[in-house]
Write a structure and sequence with these properties.
Length: 298
């Protein structure tokens, strides 16, 4: 990991943030615990800037980049949350020649924030058609900050959210310039959705890359046929606890999979808007993701 101010923050602060971000700790308790570290000499400004997102840091591909075109698109989702409609962010290469592979990009548990839109643009820059749905569309869309987005998503019916992503997958797979092979990449909650999409419909995905996502329910795992690349951070104890049983089920069902465990990496290590970002591991994981999609979706 590259040296940064966040390297000196105790690991428990990252663990607290993970609990807070996933609804296992309320904000008041989280800030109180950080205050305890401040009493030991850690600046609250340093702590919060390292742990809370700054999306100005996350833009690697501008929406004005000449190589891509980005638009918002609606799709039919009769069994989802949005009264028959969903909406997402579509990023495509500016010059499309022939059919291209398509990749669904799935956000964390807080809606379609700027980091996820940038991931979609990164894929378009590399020649993929990428679509990033917003689960919060029925509630007005991502509200502009993660705390509010997380609270909004928590009020929603999980099964209907899953239905929206299934509908988005079908929408993208049927894109006029799609070659018919659909990949999916997701982060945290989005990693879970990648695992779910692979399990709920054996014929939906041609490849899936869940970043630190928990598996679909045990009863569905027997349906998985798509090759998977599992990306995990070594310090992410919560998600990693689910891996041994998931791996056992993948092996039992002869699923093609690779698991990469990134040394010293926290949950969220690919997200370059927070101090959990691990540049070296994130770039390695991303290059592996692109190579995997190029191999499986071409």
């Amino acid at each position: 990991m590259n040296t940064s101010p966040s390297d000196h923050i105790p690991q428990e602060a990252f663990d607290w943030y993970d609990e807070y971000a996933h609804g296992l700790m309320d904000r008041r308790t989280f800030m109180k615990k950080l205050g305890g570290l401040a009493a030991l000499g850690f600046s609250m400004a340093v702590l919060t800037s390292a742990l809370l997102p700054n999306y100005a840091l996350a833009e690697q591909v501008s929406f004005n980049d000449d190589d891509i075109k980005a638009t918002y698109e609606e799709f039919d989702s009769p069994d989802g949350h949005g009264k028959g409609k969903g909406k997402g962010y579509l990023a495509v290469p500016s010059k499309i020649e022939g059919k291209l592979p398509v990749v669904l990009v799935i956000h964390e548990n807080r809606g379609l924030n700027p980091y996820i839109k940038d991931v979609a643009r990164r894929l378009a820059k590399k020649g993929f058609i990428a679509f990033a749905p917003d689960a919060l569309f029925p509630l007005g869309g991502y509200p502009g900050n993660d705390d509010e987005g997380r609270a909004m998503q928590r009020t929603m019916d999980r099964a209907k959210i899953q239905n929206d992503f299934v509908a988005a997958a079908h929408f993208l797979k049927a894109h006029p310039n799609s070659n018919g092979k659909l990949g999916a990449v997701g982060f945290c909650f989005g990693g879970y959705i990648v695992n779910y999409l692979a399990a709920v419909d054996s014929d939906l995905l041609s490849a899936g890359v869940p970043f630190y996502g928990t598996p679909a329910s045990e009863s569905l795992r027997k349906n998985i046929k798509a090759p998977l690349m599992i990306q995990l951070g070594e310090l992410d104890k919560r998600v990693n606890a689910s891996w041994p049983q998931y791996e056992q089920d993948l092996k039992a069902n002869n699923v093609e999979y690779t698991m990469h465990m990134y040394k010293g990496a926290n949950h969220g290590f690919h997200n370059d808007s927070t101090g959990r970002y691990d540049k070296d591991n994130a770039e390695l994981a991303w290059q592996r993701t692109l190579s995997f999609f190029n191999e499986k979706l071409s």
